[in-house]
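re: that chain from earlier
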Amino acid sequence: MGNIYDAIIRNSLETPFTYCTRDLSVIYLWLERNTVSKMNELTERQKEIMKGIENGKTNSQIALELGISTQTVKNTLTTIYRKMNVPNRTSALMSFLRGNFFGT
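^ sequence. v structure.
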């Protein structure tokens, strides 16, 4: 499909709003499929950290609960963001919940 960001820029500049909306739906579907495939690659520890986020806990609270340092939680979150191809905690949580990977 090529670089997804190029497609977003190209479509938003060259097509009318109605076509752009349709194209954004295709991009959303592509992102969702790629995120879900990466979700299967999360380790048990990464899933535990995501469960902490789902429960509204801070990095410090997650660290205390899991017996690890706050920096380890931050490092693990960075790894999770890369695996899921998302920019931040909120996006990661939304993808995690949408994929319903808590039981896996």
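Helices lie at 4-14, 17-39, 44-54, 59-66, 70-84, 89-99.
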